[in-house]
Amino acid sequence: MDNLYQAATLLSLVGYWVLVAGVSLRIALKRRPFGVSLAWLLLIYIIPLFGVVCYLLFGELNIGKKRTSRAEAMFEPYADWFQELADQHRRSVPQMGQHARPIHGLCLNRTGIPSLVGNHMELLHQGDVIFDRLVADIDAAQHSVALEFYIWSPGGRADEVAQALIRAAGRGVKVQVLLDAAGSRSFFNSGWPDTLAEAGIEVVEALAVSPLRMFFRRLDLRQHRKIVVIDNQIGYTGSMNLADSRMFKQDAGVGQWVDVLVRFTGPAVPVLRAIQSWDWEVETGERHLPEVPKFDTLAHEPHGEDALQVIPSGPGLPDNVIQKVLLLSIYHARTSLTLCSPYFVPSEHLMDALKTAAQRGVTVNLIVPDKNDSMMVEWASRSFFSELLRSGVNIYRFKGGLLHTKSLLIDDDHCLIGTVNMDIRSLKLNGEITLAVDDEELCAHLTEVHRDYLDQSYALQLDEWRERPLRHKLAEQFFYMFAPLL
């Protein structure tokens, strides 16, 4: 019997070693950024079995067999659609500004999506104004309304959007709603899905969470895009979820969420619809690609030189595009950069870019919330502040609520606005969308919005920051080790 116990113990030890060594070797061979690999290895060696299970569940990009096969079948028709779009709009390249051209070249070569001129853009930053415009546009819809959100939180003015969708469906408008299963859990647990379905509205869960399939698909991948397309002529995207900030997460102790959306018309709207169509087809197998917009914009027309680049990222799309666009924008800045991010846990490349910009004389302003709804992200974020402050980056903590805006303003004449947080999850994993905007009027408006944010913020001072309690420094360093996984 003793020999049996000894043999079982030996086999257990060997099995344990093989498991840990095998997963560690797989992590090393994946050729991720060094910090990501190190964080996973630390987790596995500090809490071995827990770390191995976490890696098997969340360590690799796996959207499931059915979605993968659909995405593979979609590559060719979507590539043809974007190729026709690029061919149609090749003449617009000379009209682009100095910031827009390199981003256009990068995105065209990596995603096949060109930057398009002839768009009219508006920056909306007040919740009531956004809901007013959205409801009015839906009420005027004649053919189709497509919505895609990470969060739909029932209550308040979000219910007015639901009622507008019901009215639109009653007029014969085709309405499609795609919502992330985890982010919109409160919506799916309410009576709204049945109510919308009874009105003839298609409601689909994106990346439905099923514990039974946890080892067959990564459960923490999220569809984080925010998209509204009406009649293939009006588009909305930005940081705001379909939630009334006066009612959303009021028990979190962070105040009201502060967001922006961009409303635009022009040839970039069908591109936004094509991206929403991609997400819809991955989930349902149904294709709703719009017609390719024709190039009919002349330089002398209003907004003829306002370039707009739509940049999607996430599973099934070329890797790391948005991070490359961010780096390109930061390194091209000549005078100023203002970055807003609610969840600031940057990659090593982005940290180097921000520090280098400040060290070469660019005024770099970073605006982050003073209170965050994620404890881990808050502590990890703080771990970067000392290094940035020493490099000359100005850091402002916003006290007017949870600043949820995700924007980068470059030299006051070019900007990036979208759904992307400055963390690895947004840059590498989630389905995201960003607009690269070359529009003087919109950038001037964003400058005013940033000034308003700064008026509600306080600046961190390096000398004072160094005096924070030791327990805070220890907590920051602990979460810094796992920052690449947040």
From TrEMBL:
An example molecular function term from Gene Ontology annotations: cardiolipin synthase activity
InterPro entries: Cardiolipin_synthase, CL_synthase_A, CLS_N, PLD-like_dom, PLipase_D/transphosphatidylase
Enzyme class: transferase
EC number: 2.7.8.-
BP terms from Gene Ontology: cardiolipin biosynthetic process
Keyword Glycoprotein: no
A GO CC annotation given for this chain: plasma membrane
Catalytic activity from the UniProt record: 2 a 1,2-diacyl-sn-glycero-3-phospho-(1'-sn-glycerol) = a cardiolipin + glycerol
Gene3D superfamilies the UniProt entry points to: Endonuclease Chain A
Location within or outside the cell: Cell inner membrane; Cell membrane
Main location per the UniProt record: membrane
Source organism: Ferrimonas balearica (strain DSM 9799 / CCM 4581 / KCTC 23876 / PAT)
Taxon lineage: Bacteria, Pseudomonadati, Pseudomonadota, Gammaproteobacteria, Alteromonadales
Alphabetized UniProt keyword annotations: Cell inner membrane, Cell membrane, Lipid biosynthesis, Lipid metabolism, Membrane, Phospholipid biosynthesis, Phospholipid metabolism, Repeat, Transferase, Transmembrane, Transmembrane helix
Name of the gene encoding the protein in the UniProt record: clsA
HAMAP family in the cross-refs: Cardiolipin_synth_ClsA (MF_00190)
Pfam families noted in UniProt: PLDc_2, PLDc_N
Family assignment from sequence similarity: Belongs to the phospholipase D family. Cardiolipin synthase subfamily. ClsA sub-subfamily.
Protein's UniProt name: Cardiolipin synthase A
List of catalytic residues: H224, K226, D231, H404, K406, D411
Annotated function: Catalyzes the reversible phosphatidyl group transfer from one phosphatidylglycerol molecule to another to form cardiolipin (CL) (diphosphatidylglycerol) and glycerol.
Transmembrane segments: 6-29, 36-58
Membrane topology designation: Multi-pass membrane protein
Span of domain PLD phosphodiesterase: 219-246, 399-426
